[in-house]
Amino acid sequence: MKSKDKHDNQYVSALQVARHAGVSRSAVSRAFTPGASVSAKKREKIMEAAEALGYQVNDLARGLLARRSRLVGLVVTQPELGYRSHLVAALTKALIHRGSVPIVINTGRTEEELVAAQKILFGYRAEATIILSGSPPSSFVDLARRNGQPLIVLGRSETGADDVNIDNEGAGREAARFFVAGGATRLGFAGALSRAPTTVERERGFVQEAQFQGCATVIGNGGNSDYAGGQEAARQLFERESDWPQAVFCVNDLVAFGLIDYVRKQTRLVIPDDLSVIGFDDVPEASWDAYNLTTFRQDPATMAAHAVALLDRRLAEPDRPPAHERLATLLILRESARIPAGYESLRPCRNARILSDGTAE
């Protein structure tokens, strides 16, 4: 008997398994339903037939019948960039381990792309939506809420939604204290005009602490928080030699990479002797010899685990108040920044980790 009745390019059906095993269609359904009534002998016969035919249960159809989807939408703009790509990878892994089916929705940058993304996500009745920092606009969040979907928001906050955030302001303050402890008095911040919530918070903490420490500050903003944005921010920060900063805190590692390459090519400054640079994220490239970037680490696996835990709690308790979680960051010491006297004992370790209060972990 052929493994497929008519069309070799079609999936094997439960009916084909039933015919192969010589049982009813309902028996096949019960055999693949945990706790359903079916004899051990018949179940074994059905499983052997399913194995021979390569049959897999249609979980999508089963979910629709049960009015409960296992799909979870991950809504993100430019998922291929920097830390975002690693967070998407960690989220998909965590969701699969949970038994969910993650769907990555790239919202794009135009209104048409956003509308298309909305139709796909809500048309498939996803069980929940996880929205990543900086994207999409609040209108997308409002639509998800009106459709009754649980919302988990990462790296930003939305009214009525659970969220997981990094202590961005605390990291900004620690970066300023680190630079000042190393002797810097003119501090720079390399950000982006896109003004994502994370950018605003890191800049605010850094500038406020720098002012508290009595330091002059200068800000350079690229168009986006990417490598090209880092180059543009560097052009602004190092436009006039008399105003060159002695240390720069970059909104993320991609911006730091662009800034470091610009400084090496366009100025006579030596990193870290003349200029200290700190990034944010600790993407794998930060440890490459080309950069050896001192940076704040936010662990994508930890962020994903907290997001999934919030999702489980929301589904178990739909009416509970929104939860707001804040995760600490760690400053990873490498070679792009001068190490202050208080941190010298950790200098031999290329990946020494400093807590937000300045003490060693």
UniProtKB/TrEMBL annotation:
Gene3D superfamilies: 3.40.50.2300, lambda repressor-like DNA-binding domains. Residues 12-66 form the HTH lacI-type domain. SMART domains: HTH_LACI (SM00354). The keyword DNA-binding applies. Pfam families: LacI, Peripla_BP_3. InterPro entries: HTH_LacI (IPR000843), LacI/GalR-like_sensor (IPR046335), Lambda_DNA-bd_dom_sf (IPR010982), Peripla_BP_I (IPR028082). One of its GO terms (molecular function) is transcription cis-regulatory region binding. Keywords: DNA-binding, Transcription, Transcription regulation. It comes from the Bacteria. This is Transcriptional regulator. It comes from Phyllobacterium endophyticum.
